[in-house]
C-alpha cells in the first residue's frame, strides 16, 4: 500500500515538473484545444446538466468551458467540498461572478448561501479533475480522495470525462481498490474512449 502511495506521489511530482516546463502560452494553447474538443464532443453538446470543476494545481483549467456553457444554455453545476467528511455537494451556478467564493481548500467553489443544491441523478455529464491518467481510464487525482468517493455515486448513465494535457497521459497509473476510473479522456490532441 505504501509503495503505491509513494509511486502516486512520484507521478504527481513528475507531472508538476513536466507542466512547469510549459510556458504560459503553451498551456493556454493546449487548454484552448481541450475546450474546443469538449464543445465538439457529442455527449457534451447533448448534455443539459453539466458538472464542471474549478482546477487546482496540475489540473486542466475550466474557466473557459464554464463561460461557454452559459452560451450553450447548459445548467452548470460545481462541487463544494465538506473537508471534515471528505464529501462533495453539488450546486447550480447561475452567475459565476456572484455565486463562487473561495472554499476551505483554497479553491473557488459555489456559495451555498446563494446556490441551489442539485441532486446527483440530474447530471448528464461529469467533468472530473485529474493529475495523471492512462488510456484505460485509470486516474490519479490530488490525493485527497474526494472524487474516488464521489465517482461511484454518479449514475452509471452519466459519462465521467477527464480533461488532461497529453503530458498527463501515462502508459499506466497505479490503481488501488478504492481508485475509480473515468469513461472518457479529452486532451488537446484526441478523445480517448475507455468504454
The CATH topology corresponds to Rossmann fold
What is the H-and-E element order? Answer: HHHEHEEHEEEEEHEEEE
Assembly category: single chain
Please give the radius of gyration in angstroms: 16 Å
Going by helix content, strand content and strand pairing, the class is: alpha/beta
CATH superfamily: NagB/RpiA/CoA transferase-like
For the largest sheet, list the strands in their spatial order. 3-2-1-6-9-11-12
Give a quick account of the main beta sheet: strands, pairing sense, barrel closure: 7 strands, mixed
CATH class: Alpha Beta
Count of beta strands: 12
What percent of residues are in strands?
A: 15-25%
- Let me know the average pLDDT: 91
How many domains would you count in the coordinates?
A: 1
C-alpha geometry: globular
C-alpha end-to-end distance: 28 Å
Helical segment count: 6
What would you say the CATH architecture is? 3-Layer(aba) Sandwich
Poorly predicted regions are none
Amino acid at each position: 500500500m505504501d509503495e503505491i502511495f509513494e509511486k502516486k506521489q512520484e507521478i504527481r511530482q513528475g507531472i508538476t515538473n513536466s507542466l512547469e516546463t510549459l510556458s504560459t502560452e503553451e498551456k493556454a494553447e493546449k487548454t484552448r484545444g481541450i475546450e474546443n474538443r469538449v464543445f465538439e464532443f457529442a455527449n457534451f453538446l447533448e448534455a443539459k446538466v453539466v458538472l464542471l470543476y474549478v482546477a487546482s494545481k496540475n489540473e486542466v483549467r475550466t474557466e473557459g468551458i464554464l463561460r461557454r456553457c452559459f452560451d450553450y444554455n447548459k445548467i452548470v453545476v460545481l462541487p463544494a467540498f465538506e473537508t471534515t467528511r471528505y464529501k462533495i455537494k453539488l450546486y447550480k451556478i447561475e452567475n459565476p461572478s456572484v455565486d463562487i467564493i473561495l472554499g476551505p481548500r483554497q479553491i473557488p467553489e459555489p456559495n451555498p448561501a446563494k446556490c441551489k443544491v442539485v441532486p446527483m441523478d440530474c447530471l448528464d455529464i461529469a467533468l472530473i479533475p485529474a493529475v495523471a491518467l492512462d488510456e484505460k481510464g485509470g486516474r490519479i487525482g490530488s490525493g485527497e480522495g474526494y472524487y474516488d468517493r464521489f465517482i461511484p455515486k454518479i449514475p452509471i448513465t452519466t459519462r465521467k470525462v477527464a480533461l488532461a494535457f497529453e503530458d498527463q497521459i501515462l502508459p499506466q497509473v497505479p490503481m488501488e481498490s478504492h481508485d475509480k476510473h473515468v469513461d472518457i479522456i479529452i486532451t488537446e490532441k484526441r478523445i480517448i474512449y475507455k468504454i
